[in-house]
Amino acid sequence: MSESHPVEHLVDFKSYFRRCVYVFIAVVCTTSLMIYASFLPNYGWTAKVAMILAIACINAFVVAGFLMHLLSEKKAIYTTLAFTVFFFAGLMGLTLWAMHDFPTGTQMH
Amino acid sequence: MENLVQQFPPFREAAHAPGDHGHHEHHEPAFWSKYIFSTDHKTIGIQYGLTALCFMLFGFGLMILMRWQIAHPGIPVPLIGPLLEKVLGQVAAKGVISPELYNSFGAMHGTIMVFLGIVPLAFAAFGNYVVPLMIGAPDMTFPRVNMASYYAYFTGGLVMLVSFFIPGGAAQAGWTSYSPLATTIPTHGQLFWIIGMVFLISSSLLGAVNFIATIIQLRAPGMTWMRLPWFVWAQFVTAFILLLAFPPLEAAAVMQLMDNVAHTSFFLPTGLAVGGQLANVSGGGSPLLWQHLFWFLGHPEVYVLILPAMGIVCEVIANNTRKPIWGYKSLVYAVLAIGFLSFIVWAHHMYLTGMGTKISTFFQATTMIISIPSVIILTCFFMSLWGGSIRFNTPMLFALAFLPMFGIGGLTGLPLGFNVSDVHLHDTYYIIAHFHYVVAPGTIFALFAGVYFWYPKMTGRMMNEFWGRVHFWGSLVFMNVVFMPMFVQGMAGMLRRMSDGGANYSAAVNSRAGADVIGGLSSNIMSLHTGILWGAMCLGLAQIPFIINIFWSIKHGEKVKNDNPWEATTLDWQTPTPPPHGNFEHEMRVYRGPYEYSVPGHATDFTPQNEPPEPLSAPKISTAH
Amino acid sequence: MDIPYTVKPRPDIGLYNAKLGIWLFLASEVMLFGGLFSAYVLLRVGAAPGEWPHGWLNVWLGTLNTLILALSAITTLLAWVSCKVGQFGKFKFFHACTLLLALTFLCVKMYEYHDKWIHYEIKLNDGRFADGHFESAVYVDKATNQELEEHSFRGNAFSEVAGGVTNNYELASVTIEGRIVTDEKDLDDLRTQKNIEHKEVKIDRAQIKSMQNYGPWHNTFLAIYFTLTGLHALHILGGSIVIGYLWGPGSKMWKTDPERFTNRIEVSGLFWHFVDLVWIFLFPVLYLT
Shortest Cα distance from A26 to chain B (angstroms)? Predict the structure, then answer.
């Protein structure tokens, strides 16, 4: 939150509304891009997944950053979320690694 | 980035609007609102404490029955056998504990002790009562959420208890509920277990949010982070662990529920055969996935069990050595490190699942690293004793005993952290001995210390000191009688969860010159069972003075002479006894750290955190030549 | 003593209590859905090659839902802005929009679930597979040879009481709109198959070896699909209840404590945005990959 002003200025609803329209357009664009990417015939599965997830992250960034005001949030929130993301990455990554590292000469299935 | 998001000026400080819940100079609440549906953190803390102690007693009873079966397999339980048969039916036919019943006792003993006993007592009960007092807050940030979290816990506990009485009995697949066993057992006990767990997890999540928000937001003016009593730091880290580690287990529990009820195959592999027949499921699942998701919580959970206990020990030691805790900063960094590292060590519970060397080396490394902050914490406590004026009251006896007991538990964990030695020790009695040493006599001793320590603040009376010592010595001696032999049994190869106590394996012993067949259990090892059973029963007897003491001292305990009978420095002792609703008569202001004992030049040997600093007088100029 | 910082933020942290509380709760929700997403990744990566379905979900319905939810996220934000500028009427309008969009989302989801519910895979005795949407089934009363056509599947046999007489019906035949394939693997990847012909196929009881609809029990993809979207839908439902409460009875607080009410709208809005965020990842992961 910004510092309190001695005079409370009128908040501009209209400009806020305009910003919301931009965000919605951004979401429509990223969603369309994702769908388009998923139908591209010339790419392998891994490349497609990477592309689609990258676009999803941009979409998420827009929603989280602007609609949830995460870009102007306080350190306490940032820090909590940073640790959360780290632990989630650990959960996913380490489990994936664990299920694909086998003693020599053995295998899954 | 600021200009991309329109900033609104913060609200002006509003005066109390009419209808605000703020004004507390009102009527005394009715019985139900005061004692049953209370939103006051102190009442909720006591509710949690009493409920948890009851569950622990019940879990203890289950253990005694199991130990009987282990020491005397197939022999009807004396005295209680006919009652068991009447209540539980076929599984306790003729008063003998059948293997199914043994398995459900085992699964429920673990579940009840961990989730219904220790976590609610250590984290929720002591945390709820003490933390707001220690930081100078009037209550928790979200009192109604606090009440909701207690009732979620209560409901979960009820569901767990009820599961004993449904056809087929309670869960039988261990407190770890591994698939596919948990899904293929044809009774409904496991279903109740999952539903109970969902309630308990939700309760912990709500509690965790409350604790973190309270500690961040409601610290009194002057209570900076580095002036917090270390008990609060420990609870803070514990709350974060609960917040972030429990949800994957909730996700896994939902998936196992789907496996049980909707016949999905999240954790059921293709080609699963049950009772010789191919199971009628789609397959394609992974039993290992359950283990990963379970232990992702399971390991941080053990730090949830120990950190609040360490916090209590810290407070009791500082208070009873009359000197500051040694290494406060190290303690803070160590507990933060433990909280962080606890999330990346979990697969050391899974060394025997066919993991490759790279991944098991990774987890082995992180497991070894996490032992360092634990040792730092214990070292700081030991160092704090040096040069102290130690008062050997009952809380201090328990806190002192915690140190070597937790030391044994922690050190015996090291061979388990190495994947090489764990191959031999996994799933043996060595593991049982290790984790029981850390939790009981580790955590539980600290919790006993906490009860004796804070009882005067809650009730205005001291617990009886003589019977406290009887309780202490009885517990200390018999805890060791029960658990020390288990290390020996485990190293000799006795596996855990065997309903006959290994009797089958003992038949494989080569009697010639007492030589042991590999895998066989000699009569020396088996004979330890009897001693353990007697030890467990005496341990139970040693708790009787404690139980009586709690209730007797409410009316007949020695009255405290003032609000601060232990002469403590922390804010929880600077309140009226017992603290009223809102805790403090006026806003607290903190001027110093939490352990200002024996400050040179001070009139008394303790300086409370909220005592205003002495006004600066003219410097004393020495006239000596 | 009152609990401080319920409305005005604590100066050194910069947050009021409920805002910190909701972000902490959202962190735990990240781990909850993260646990399920991890399960999805592991199950998918661990599946034998070629055995994971593709294209079983309608991309256009999913896109519609994505846009509905994105729009609702925006209307919920505008509702909060309206509160901040003191325009209660505007707040009521945008909040109602949010609720309606949420309910529309749920309706679309129900339609999608129903579509899977009536989609059957029938193993035939000659080793082929029939696959399609259930149209009708003919049941025969063994006693009277009376035929009964049902438009929903009622199992292999059922009993019905009519005029004091109990009639026992048994399945005689099933009609689906779909196709018959020889290799079960042909049913897996719908993305690469173009112009699949759907026609009415009638199958006699005698030919049916087993019959199962596309519920969560059918395979692990559907299991994780139903679990992920089901949990998400439960969150939408819960959020809708809160939004509805704040729009209706809860809005009384606007008169007595408008700042605290605005904070409540902000906090519930944050939860709603999180639900939208989860869908932003659910949609591509389940529908597009």
Answer: 15
